[in-house]
Amino acid sequence: MNDLHVVSHLIKVENQGCYIYYMVKKIKYEMAVIVAVAIGISYVLFLVFVTPFMDNARPHQQSEPAVSTVVFVEGASLATAPNNGIEPKIVTVIVGLNNTVRWINQDTIPHGIPTPDDDNVDPDFAKAVLLEESKNHFFIMPGGKDSFQFTFTNLGQIDYHMVPHPQMRGTVIVLSNSAPKTEAPPIISGIACNRTEQLVYHIHAHLALFVNGTRVQVPANIGVLSSSQCFYWLHTHSNDGVIHVESPKVKTFTLGQFLEIWKQTGDNGGSFFSSVSSLPLRIYVNGTEFAGNYDDLKLNSREQITLAYGSPPGSIPSYDFGNLDKPRVNNTEIQ
């Protein structure tokens, strides 16, 4: 009996030990769960209540507006230099988008920094020029490394010239970005309107228009929307007839696409084409009559296109593109 009592006692003690071991393991597990839940709740509270204050305290980086580059081409001071030796001769900028203009010199001789024709049109620009000259920076040296730049904020048209080569003349047109924001501009003939000019693929073509033998100007700023702060890949800057092809990818564009952009975004585009719709049309490419449809006419680099509605002109004009109109891919000249 005593032995059975001892055995029974040992079994009881062993059972109590197992129970205690089980309870300890259970408590540890429950504590681990509680700790994990507490950590999770703390993390959520941190994200909800603390992170916003950290974000507000952290300085936010803002994207810088694009810089519009104006180049003095080789031979810019010569009387025969196209566009007065400046490319582009007329640059259109939008405040807050690309309104910093940088002038660089790719000629072989120095040229003066741009001087406004009228100091009162943009007094800030005039002061900036005087300040630059006070630092003995009168000339932009050749080679493309030296430059002068200014950020335009006053709206309007600023005409400027160079000293000592006053025949070198250019224009900056400053447009506002304060117009009410509208819905995204439409994609026209597969061409989008981007906030900055796309220069992966950059070429130029020229368009001349005639109605019954009389020259008609191609308007400036076709495809440039100040209200939406964007540029279509096919657009004009001035009324010289130069079509700027500035695309984010290398592809073939047609005259028909450009004319459709003109109809929808340009000055009197729709009314002009309505007025000539009943007249016969002759198309000339590089001085030779083209038998096809302008919808299929490819815009190649240095292409010279003439549309003659009604009776044709006495002669087909020729346009001198100058030194900078070589095709560029990723801003690198190609042949």
What fraction, in percent, of the residue positions are helical?
A: 25-40%
- What is the general shape? globular
Q: Encode the helix/strand succession as letters.
A: HEEEEEEHEEEEEEEEEEEHHEEEEE
- Low-pLDDT stretches are 51-63
If helices are DSSP runs of H or I spanning 4 or more residues, what is the number of helices?
A: 4
Characterization of this structure:
With about 325 residues, the chain is an alpha+beta fold. It folds into 3 domains: about 1-60; about 65-175, Immunoglobulin-like (Sandwich); about 195-335, no CATH class. It has 4 helices and 22 strands.
What is the element layout, followed by pairings?
Layout: H1 2-57, E1 67-72, E2 86-87, E3 90-94, E4 100-105, E5 111-112, E6 115-116, H2 123-134, E7 139-140, E8 147-151, E9 156-161, E10 169-175, E11 193-194, E12 201-211, E13 214-216, E14 224-225, E15 230-232, E16 234-235, E17 242-247, H3 255-265, H4 269-275, E18 281-285, E19 288-290, E20 304-309, E21 328-329, E22 332-333
Parallel strand pairs: 1-4, 3-10, 12-20
Antiparallel strand pairs: 1-2, 4-8, 5-7, 6-9, 9-10, 11-15, 12-13, 12-17, 12-21, 14-15, 16-17, 18-19, 18-20, 21-22
Helix pairs in contact: 3-4
Question: What's the short story on this structure?
Answer:
The chain has 335 residues and is of the alpha+beta class. The chain has 4 helices and 22 strands.
